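Appendix B. Chain record.
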Amino acid sequence: MHDVPPRPSDLSERGARGHCLWSPKRGVVMWERDEDRLALLELVRTGKLQRRTSQAYAWERLVELPWVRRTGRRDEMALDERHRDDVVQLLDRVWPGWREHDESLAQAGLPATPAGHERLLDDRRAAALGALPDRLNIRTATSAVGPHSKATLGVRRREALGDTEIRRDGVVRMRPPIGLEVVRGVVRFRGDAIAELLGEVAITERALRDGTRIEGPVRAVLLVENLGPYQDLTAPAGWLVAHVPGWNTATVRVLLEQLGEVPIVHFGDLDPAGFRIVQHLRSIRSDLRWAVPDFWAEYVETRGLRGEWPEELDLGAAPALVRQLAARGQWLEQEVVALDPRLAAALEDSLT
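Structure tokens predicted for this chain:
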């Protein structure tokens, strides 16, 4: 970038209202975003600029200048050709390589817009891809074909990955009952022995999909929303306890597929998010039981939290305590009953 001192009379540095568009210290920084520099490029290439949220800064700066005029359309401005050189000079200062980029866009048949710019960069990343493994974590895959790992993996970017399988690679954390075994081919370990050594059994989604299985007697599976109760509650004998943090259910879904008709019980917070999590889990297992012990109502007066329930939630089939909490504008955390000595028996009763 060039720090060329501006001429005081040059309108490329000062707008009609005195807003500085260039200075040796601030000029480049003020136009450092690709979206705003692309607005200048679009104005030079087409003579017009559409108003876009992503280019709000450029629009606000340009509309103050005599370089442009408003057209008959609400969200469009047009270049005053008498000031074309002013826009070009500003582009030269804030984006020395703009001509080469414009040529690349034109050769690819792409507009000088944020969408065209994104498509050009996506195509370049796709062209630079080497051989890919059979599967990738979604963040690694998105980073390979997108601007960063948190970007959207849309249809076009997904197509660039070919047949590579995309995985979210979750982990299911379990407290196994006595007698449960973890098996892969001819390798077999006692799950309770692993848990005694490591504190729990943690199995990745890839391992489950590659053939790792759990075998042995499981009376029921208890899905626990929060980490504290998962670690601390006393489960009934023969129950497998699994941590399911919120909406992160992809891996536990694979686990439940292995278990067949074993009863599934959910224990979580009594609040709107907890209700929605139950609904989501029931889309995976329609026979899911929701553990809301009657004695939990004893905690409402002393441990209930103030919290609104959205009116659109249909609580008609929810347990009575949940409906009561909604009417009172209260929530209950599952931690308050995690150590109640009556919990194990209440969980057992949920199977009947």
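Further analysis of this model is presented in Appendix C.
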